[in-house]
Amino acid sequence: MFMLEDIKKNIDRLIAMYEGEKQQRIRLVEELEKSNATVASYEKKISELERQVDNLKLAAAFSSGAGDNSPAKEKIQKLIKEIDKCISLLER
Q: Which pLDDT band holds residue 68 (cuts at 50, 70, 90)?
């Protein structure tokens, strides 16, 4: 009789542990989704800031006034290559 009660207690304990793990899993999944959203937001912000830095570098190259536009030309050539690459990807 005692053995049957011990088995029942163990089963109840296992069920309680299972429910606790299940709740923790749900919490962790929600936390992961929130973290993924935060990472995506930061990646978007980084991309925007990199674009702004590139634009500022290009503007600085054009406004240098020294007559040496080689950095500007390099930047323009890089942008043209990037545009050509995008066009070729669109044509596929």
A: low
What CA–CA distances, in Å, run from 1 to 4, 6, 28, 47, 71? 5, 9, 41, 69, 89
d(CA 36, CA 44): 12
Is residue 54 a contact partner of residue 44, using CB atoms and an 8 Å limit?
A: no
Q: For residues 60-73, b (16+ Cβ closer than 10 Å) or e, as one string?
A: ebeeeeeeeeeebe
Task: Report phi then psi at 67, rounded to 5.
Answer: 85, -10
pTM of structure: 0.53
DSSP, res 63 = T
Q: Is the pLDDT of residue 69 over 70?
A: no
